[in-house]
Amino acid sequence: MIGHRPPGRRPAALIELAGVTKTHGSGEGAFESLRGVSLAIGRGERVAIIGPSGSGKSTLLHMIAGLDVPTRGEVRLGGSSLASLSDEQLSLLRLNEIGFVFQGFHLFPALTAGENVGWPLELAGVPRAAIRSAVRGALEQVGMSGREARRPGELSGGEQQRVAIARALVNRPSILLADEPTGNLDTATGETILDLLGTLNRRHDLTVVMVTHMLAAAEWSDRAIELRDGAVVSDVRRTAPASSLS
Fold first, then answer.
1. Backbone angles phi, psi at 53, to 5 degrees
2. Distance between CA atoms of 32 and 100, rounded to whole angstroms?
3. pLDDT digits (tens, 9 = 90+) for 183-201
4. Mean pLDDT value across the chain
5. For residue 239, what pLDDT is reported?
6. What domains can you pick out in the chain, each with its CATH number?
7. HEC-encoded secondary structure of the chain
């Protein structure tokens, strides 16, 4: 669950990749989407993964989530190797410790905002009264109080992404993985979403790892990791944590 790091100390590694390579196909048609990636991401960091299309950004995010497995190398979360976990344990890890935000929102159009936010808790068998309380809290965190009964079609793109972020947070995960969360939004709305993610990171010591083409994300982040052709070509830390885009 989300913890708090002591002030003035570098955050302990929560996410670790050691020599991660992902090979697709075989023979002359084989290619590597990741090539020997090694990095450590600390608890409470906000990290932007940047690079051109096809550089391996989304594959890296899938590795961290345990949605894909390396051909070589190892991925560890909280010191535990994902390779040592059963499918059931991986599912529970994703349900309880990892929140996901996507470019396309991925909301169920027939469900209300509140129902969309609450469905991970339904899946986990949480009592209804506790779900209602958690949903209200999650929507309040993202500035969507009072819109529980709205369906996605009644919300703007920015509002839909806020609902998607609330859904990702409702289980109080340690890690938020965001795959192009501003990709379907105009620039101003995208910057608002980045600012919201930054606020949530600071308030809850939430580790945020975001794949993005948005250059402003490098200034939003504590750290920008650039991938090209499946390899890390730069890993730049800011001297002080980013506060906002303003």
1. -60, 140
2. 25
3. 888 888 888 888 889 888 9
4. 88
5. 58
6. 13-106+174-237 (3.40.50.300)
7. CCCCCCCCCCCCEEEEEEEEEEEECCHHHCEEEEEEEEEEEECCCEEEEECCCCCCHHHHHHHHHCCCCCCEEEEEECCEEHHHCCHHHHHHHHHHHEEEEECCCCCCCCCCHHHHHHHHHHHCCCCHHHHHHHHHHHHHHCCCCCCCCCCHHHCCHHHHHHHHHHHHHCCCCCEEEEECCCCCCCHHHHHHHHHHHHHHHHHHCCEEEEECCCCHHHHHCCEEEEEECCEEEEEEECCCCCCCCC
Question: How far is Cα of residue 217 from the mean position of the Cα atoms in its chain?
Answer: 14
Whole-structure pTM value: 0.86
Structure tokens given for 7: 């002030």
Sheet bearing 98-102, strands edge to edge: 98-102, 175-179, 207-211, 46-50, 223-228, 231-237
Structure tokens at 165: 């972020």
